[in-house]
Specification:
Elements: E1 5-8, E2 12-15, E3 19-20, H1 36-48, E4 53-55, H2 64-73, E5 81-86, E6 88-92, E7 95-98, H3 102-116, E8 121-126, H4 135-147, E9 151-157, H5 161-170, E10 175-179, H6 188-197, E11 200-204, H7 216-224, H8 229-240, H9 253-261, H10 269-275
Parallel strand pairs: 3-4, 4-5, 5-8, 8-9, 9-10, 10-11
Antiparallel strand pairs: 1-2, 6-7
Helix pairs in contact: 1-2, 1-9, 3-4, 5-6
Length: about 280
């Protein structure tokens, strides 16, 4: 039986199949996407279906996704973990600027707290390591915010196994986010380190950003389980490692239901060998 839950940071149990908010914004994660009422409905339905991990970021919009989370889900259920990110500044739909100076990270975190209307962010993730700022200064700023009660757990987005090892020498890291899916396993060394250290791995683009190409074997296995290719891709992640916690995003209620139903797909050992 595949575990449906993961205990993040050794003390926060979450359902492994969560929900990501990037698709609630416009093209390039810029501006709003359609009617805000549709986004609110998707967020509320995700929680109704048992999602306890909602992943967002200050630069989705920017600000749009965090504000929608607060509008839809406050007062937050006691078992709901809101994860957000900071460390990247947006100046356009294709312009991303890494910014990891301590004073910038503090301002970003405090702005997220205001938008989300939270006293403490359950999981705050450094969206990118800034190569111009020593890692110790970036993580030190987040550790100060944690000591002040504004952050509960820290995470890192898009790092190597070596960078995670270095970060763990400086502070506790509860989660990482890297690209990882059925057809892109380049972060396997990082996944193995997370397994060894009990760190959650939130794979981004778990469905290949909607462009996952499914081969004949994939299609046959999906059909045998009465599943869609997307459900197979999510089920494979849940079976692949107990630390993988995919948070697929969508702005569609129909697609949300499909994604969450993937938790019921039970792959056999033979299926997993065929998909290896």
């Amino acid at each position: 039986m595949v575990a449906q839950r993961f205990t993040l940071g050794g003390e926060l149990p979450v359902r492994r199949l969560g929900y990501g908010t990037a698709q609630l914004t416009g093209p390039g994660y810029w501006g709003p996407r359609g009617d805000a009422r549709d986004a609110v409905a998707v967020l509320r339905r995700a929680v109704e279906r048992g999602v306890t991990l909602v992943d967002t970021a200050d630069n989705y919009g920017p600000s749009v996704a965090e504000e929608l989370v607060a509008e839809a889900l406050r007062p937050y259920p006691a078992d709901l973990l809101i994860a957000t990110k900071g460390g990247v500044v947006r100046t356009g739909d294709s312009a991303w600027h890494v910014s990891g100076r301590p004073e910038t990270l503090r301002a970003m975190c405090e702005a997220s707290l205001r938008r989300l209307r939270l006293d403490t962010i359950g999981l705050y993730q450094l969206h990118r390591l800034d190569p111009r700022v020593p890692m110790a200064e970036q993580l030190g700023a987040l550790d100060e915010l944690r000591a002040e009660g504004k952050i509960r757990h820290l995470g890192l987005d898009t790092v190597t196994a070596e960078q995670l090892e270095a970060a763990l020498e400086l502070t506790d890291i509860a989660a990482v986010q890297n690209r990882y899916n059925l057809l892109d396993r380049g972060s396997q060394p990082l996944l193995e380190l997370c397994e060894a250290r009990g760190i959650a791995f939130l794979p981004w683009f778990p469905l290949g950003n909607g462009s996952l190409t499914v081969g004949r074997v994939h299609a046959e296995i999906a059909a045998a389980h009465g599943a869609t290719p997307g459900q197979l891709a999510l089920a494979w992640l849940l079976h692949r490692s107990p630390v993988l916690c995919p948070t697929p995003g969508t702005g569609s209620l129909v697609h949300l239901e499909e994604n969450l139903d993937a938790a019921a797909v039970r792959l056999t050992a033979e299926d997993m060998r065929a998909l290896a």
